[in-house]
Design goal:
Strand content: under 5%
Helix content: 55-70%
Oligomer: single chain
Order of helices and strands: HHHHHHHHHHHH
Distance between the termini: 43 Å
Radius of gyration: 18 Å
Largest sheet: none
Low-confidence stretches: none
Shape: elongated
Length: 192
Amino acid sequence: NTVQPNVDDIQPHSVKIQPEKQRTLTTIDKVTLALNALRSENWELAQKSARFLREFSEKMRGTKDLRIITPLCEALSEDNWHVRWAVAESLAWLQHPDAIPYLVKRLNDHHWMVQVAVIRALVELEASQHAIDIAGLLAHPNNAVRETAAEALGALGNPQVLQALERTIEMDDDFIRLASIKAICQIFNDDR
């Protein structure tokens, strides 16, 4: 059973929409409502809006409409880490290349979950030109960030990061070493 996104679930109580207008919400209205609800102090409402935004973005994959992409990119600079995290995941689904510079700026976000979502989004966007930026996270103090970075480098296949990956093989963390070895193999296979 797939849960269909429902705009009524994420509508903040302060926003009043006439019932006859609910049927005519534009995609821009839906993004705006989702972002407003995502900023809510109500955790359940924020979770519903994050789920809606991900599902909506999946359906809108490949859109060229910057009226959808721009507010999401701008939301990456919000103080609330939960907003940044959900938006990074949505931008991964949308796969619009204009999101890349905004995502790269968040690679050094102060919350590790945002960093992981940003790395994964850059992989979805095939941003191999930023593999060097991602390689800088191989020394991050958080294991999940390091492992995600190593996996991403393999997926991006940029041979410029081979030395950085080779250095991680000396780390004590078995998961990082395994991810790095796999990444090196992927890069060599892509190189042939």
